[in-house]
Design brief:
single chain, globular
Length: about 280
Amino acid sequence: MKKKALFGALLTCVVAGGFLTTKAFAQVEGELSPEEEIRLVQEFNRMLAEGVNPGEIWYEVGKEAIKKYNLDKCDLGLGPGNFKGAAAQMPRYFADAGKVMDLETRVGWCLQKHAGMTPEQVQKFVKTCWGKSGNCMSEYDAIIMYLTMESNGYKINVNLKDPRVKKMYEIGKKAYHARLGPWDFNCATCHAGKQEVRIRATRLWSIDRPGEVGKAVAIFPKYLVRWGLPMTMHYRYAECIRQMRWPEFVPHSDLGVALSAYLYGEANGTEIEAPGIGR
């Protein structure tokens, strides 16, 4: 009852537009100090101990957005509107689109087909809260949160026996290890190797340490304390690519699908537990 009451109060604040201005979620201008980050993380740990994950609020908003944008007609691979466990089996091949898609790319396709959006409108919708913090509510982020959480408890099961999916997996693997940009960086710069790597207090996961990639991707969308917002996987790709000074990442691109095929393929067998929480 305590969890339900507290969650209901937080959701009411969201609807009223005041959720992200409460003490725990106050918008902070500029970079957070290490002390402020620690304080916020402690506050979130307290809430988690009470059974409340702030990221779950986006689930409720997403549930309504599914209806608003006619996404109950969207087929994620198990039939229109059948979302339980569907995200756990993506990326996968979709005959109606003639290509392999991950969850976010499929949602973009369905927004065009069932909500009448143009590709340009979808891109704008995806980026509603990109580069923002505090008082921003993205229905797109909420949709992805809802659909992912409908697979909570299911194990990731990307069908790498499908040659079309395996091809995207191999492309993603090459992209992950490709060195580009003025700094000659790649994804493996931070997320590969047996030796532990840290950025400030954050221990970075590695594709080469058993089980770590699964633990990393199974909690996306991930609620970020410093932003007071969730981050979807394609936003994560975009931020990593920006930081590496690669050419700008385009959401729902083949690159995004390929990276998802590789990472989620490597994470097969890991149970989905979204949303995670990070600094």
